[in-house]
Specification:
Chain lengths: 274, 291
């Protein structure tokens, strides 16, 4: 395991006080209204706030907030590839990096990228790659960096949306925006855009058919560019879940387009009076 | 993944063949290559298995150790996966080259086993909150000829079937502390129930059709693949799209259906083979790594 010798770390045996809770966290009920008032089994996503062009140094940037989940993305490029042996003569390279701030999750994380962070970064890269016109940027590298400021559920789905917005803000040519949506299957019912508590609840009464699904979708082209599921689900709930996520992406599309148009208008010079 | 350079003409040839349900080596689109499985190949482990799928060879060793359980789940043991892409497989894996692929493979394995039913984790508990069995599943890639996920998952299932965890019992000594005692009989051990351990099926999208168990050449012609992990009952524990291309939702549904069908069909012959191998006992001829 690589160790971080540059930073002074807290004692290794420290534990979060939530471990010592007297009552174990009650399993969330699998029927009825959700904790934040949204409905089950319906396409009830959290309202989304997006803004582009926040980071002045980056070529393109975007910030997204959905409920309590907050993340920001910066795009640098296209610029020359750092390592000469990785230069591809015919098309550009896209690199994606997703990191969690140590204070983002209820349990403190570390600054060293864990294997789960690498997994998210890989999934982000696979979701964005089909959408970017890499053949238009030979011998160049485009870097996408996502930083999760607060993790309150479906962080990968929102990271995908944020990253494609930042790419659009940077002026990188793309075939389409990539939007992400995730659901959590809990027995016979599902919840769209789960919160952190809903994602990690250790299971309700029904033991079967529990899992999470994240889908990255290109709405205009009707293509799925990213798909990831875990837990255990029947094939039927998976196919229904994929359809629900696709609908969720269609619902998100106009919001994202509007935010992008607003950012472009703000950056454009005012129309001349004559 | 180790890649081969495939010319445009070869790509067209492979594409047209698959369109007509005929692959380069004569298989159908849903046929596997010749597969050989052998368990108990490494004597220092608690369970081991070697799987050869065509030219892909994977060796899995499982060691059981006693550790403190995770704070959030005090009455369960757990599994730790590590995949090592050895430089023997291809020169690309020399040094840290194989690390990325190894991390990707082990992350997928964590996802596949991240549910309550694959392995009975409660049976791995010795005393709640203090001691539990941790199974370190170490996968070694010996040769790489495509379709690593399938070979690894079959090897893990075989190795888990072969795992013999020694029986321990806890006794309180004079000062009130707990002592762990290993049973004296070396054959007194606990076996795991691997009925629900899933198998991974990789489906590569080549042209308009999908193929199971793609070779490296076929992989070079496909833009995207779908990994689906299926239990013997047909429940899907992990579904994941890999590769830099995008897929149509309809083809994903088709591929999921095909993957579930192929995956379900893998389990029964594998379990029969493992039970048969076990029943041979001492009379079994060990093939090992040669021959």
């Amino acid at each position: 395991m690589p160790t971080d010798t540059k930073r002074v770390r807290g004692p290794e045996v420290s534990q979060s006080p939530s471990v010592f809770q007297c009552k174990p966290a009650a399993a969330l009920p699998s029927c009825g209204v959700r904790a934040d008032g949204r409905q089950r089994d319906q396409l009830d996503v959290r309202p989304v706030f997006v803004r582009c062009g926040l980071v002045s140094q980056a070529k393109g940037s975007a910030y997204i907030e959905a409920g309590n989940t907050k993340l920001m993305c910066c795009v640098y490029g296209p610029r020359e590839t750092k390592r000469k042996d990785e230069t591809d003569m015919k098309c550009g390279r896209l690199t994606a990096d997703m990191r969690f701030a140590p204070f983002s999750c209820p349990e403190r994380g570390s600054w060293i990228q864990s294997s789960q962070d690498k997994d998210f970064s890989l999934m982000l890269l696979e979701s964005l790659q089909p959408a970017v016109c890499l053949h238009k940027y030979p011998r160049s590298q485009i870097e996408v960096n996502v930083m999760v400021l607060e993790n309150s559920g479906s962080v990968l789905a929102h990271a995908i949306t944020c990253a494609s917005l930042a790419l659009a803000d940077a002026g990188i040519e793309m075939y389409d925006l990539v939007l992400g949506c995730s659901i959590r299957q809990d027995g016979a019912s599902y919840v769209v855009d789960p919160t952190y508590v809903e994602e990690n609840s250790c299971g309700s009464a029904s033991e079967e058919n529990q899992g999470g699904l994240t889908v990255a979708f290109l709405p205009s082209l009707n293509q799925i560019s990213g798909l990831q599921s875990d837990g255990e689900m029947t094939k039927e709930s998976l196919t229904d879940g994929i359809r629900t996520c696709i609908e969720g992406c269609y619902k998100l599309y106009p919001v994202v387009q509007q935010a992008l148009a607003k950012a472009v208008r703000k950056a454009a010079p005012p129309p001349s009076e004559s | 993944m180790a890649t081969v350079q495939v010319s445009e003409a070869e790509k067209v040839y492979i594409l047209h063949g698959i369109r007509d349900d005929l692959r380069v080596d004569g298989r159908g689109c849903e046929d596997y290559r010749h597969m050989e499985t052998e368990t108990d190949v490494v004597s220092n482990t608690d369970g081991s298995a070697k799987v050869t799928l065509g030219h892909t060879a994977v060796l899995v060793g499982i060691k059981a150790e006693i550790r403190k359980p995770r704070p959030m789940l005090p009455d369960e043991g757990y599994l730790e996966f590590f995949v090592d892409c050895s430089a023997n497989a291809t020169p690309e894996f020399e040094g840290r080259g194989g690390e990325e692929l190894g991390t990707e493979l082990s992350n997928t394995l964590y996802k596949v086993f991240n549910n309550k039913h694959s392995v009975d984790l409660k049976s791995l508990c010795i005393s709640a909150g203090e001691h539990c069995w941790v199974l370190y599943v170490d996968v070694l890639l010996l040769q790489c000829d495509g379709n690593l996920y399938d070979a690894i998952s079959i090897a893990i299932k075989a190795a888990l079937f072969n795992t013999k965890i020694p029986r321990v019992h806890i006794s309180t000594d004079d000062e009130g502390g707990k002592e762990i005692e290993l049973s004296d009989d070396p054959f007194d051990c606990m076996r795991l129930n691997v009925e629900n351990v899933p198998c991974i099926v990789t489906l590569c999208k080549v042209g308009h059709r999908h193929v199971v168990d793609a070779t490296l050449q076929e992989k070079a012609c496909s833009v995207a693949s779908l990994i689906i992990s299926v239990t013997h009952k047909g429940t899907v524990t992990c579904l994941r799209k890999v590769g830099g291309g995008s897929l149509d939702p309809e083809s994903i549904f088709e591929m999921t259906e095909a993957g579930k069908r192929v995956g379900k069909a893998l389990h029964t012959p594998l379990m029969n083979l493992l039970k048969q191998e076990e029943s041979l006992g001492k009379t079994r001829q060990k093939v090992g790594f040669l021959g």
